[in-house]
Amino acid sequence: MMPNSFDILGNIAILKFPEKTNKKEKIKTAREVLNVNKSVKTILEKTEKVHGRLRTIKTVYLAGERSKLALYKENNCIFKFDVDKTYFSPRLSNERKEIASQVKKNESVLVMFAGVAPFSIVIAKLAKPKFVYSVEINREASKYALENVRLNKTFNVEIVQGDVKKVIQKQGLIVKGKLIPLQFDRIVMPRPQLKETFLNLAFKVIKKGGIINYYGFSKDQEEIINSINEQAKKAKKQIKIILVKKAGNIAPYKYRWRVDLRVMS
Questions:
Q1: pLDDT-based confidence at 53, cuts 50/70/90?
Q2: 202-238 burial string, b = 16+ CB within 10 Å, else e?
Q3: Res. 5: pLDDT tops 80
Q4: Could you give phi then psi for residue 87, rounded to 5 degrees?
Q5: Could you tell me if 87 and 138 are in contact, meaning their C-beta atoms sit under 8 angstroms apart?
Q6: H-helix or E-strand containing 67?
Q7: Among the CATH numbers 3.40.50.880, 3.30.1230.20, 3.40.50.150, 2.60.40.10, which is that of 88-263?
Q8: What is the mean pLDDT of residues 236-257?
Q9: How confident is the model at residue 56 (pLDDT cuts 50, 70, 90)?
Q10: Residue 212 and residue 202: Cα distance in Å, rounded?
Q11: CA 151 remoteness from chain centre
């Protein structure tokens, strides 16, 4: 029995089965996966979709070591996190590398919805930014983000735990209760699947000529572009769309899109 989906997060593999699959078949498949993938030590079953504003999932143990703590490597970086308490997508590995390749020396970078800081750390490790501010609402994710900064020795990454709506102000960012006057050359928005675009916040702290790497979800790119143009108009910003690309599918006929745009004024 092949699972519907199959993600390997370093030492942990997470399987998703068709609804009517019985427990015996699941355990048999889990043991087969464990035997074939020698680096995998634990097999879990994903029992719920990503949900809530913290973007967490629920898993149950199937085989191997009883653990939910992942150690995952990509792009010469290592990430530690609890798979049930934090959001992490290995499928965005190439996106992280691609965006890091765009970052110029001494750029100031803001990553919104940063999770355990994969975008932030890959950018810091592969490029030479001046600094990266990494904002995440989930306290557990922020805790692991701090640990991941230490693991990767990317000390130009500043972890900011909080809601982006409260952290981002017109004059800069609220960090540890203090207003830090900051404007950014680049803002990366690996946005959750929510109705809000949050572009109004990004427009507050992007420099003239700065780049926004925006992620949205839709059947077609026209809907995403129209939404971006509408938000730019509301914020009285002139923008130039540089690139639109599919960055994966999340359901039949529904895609994650990445739009790179330059804020002209």
A1: low
A2: bbebbeeebbbbbbbbbeebeebbebbeebbeebebe
A3: no
A4: -100, 135
A5: yes
A6: none
A7: 3.40.50.150
A8: 90
A9: confident
A10: 8
A11: 18
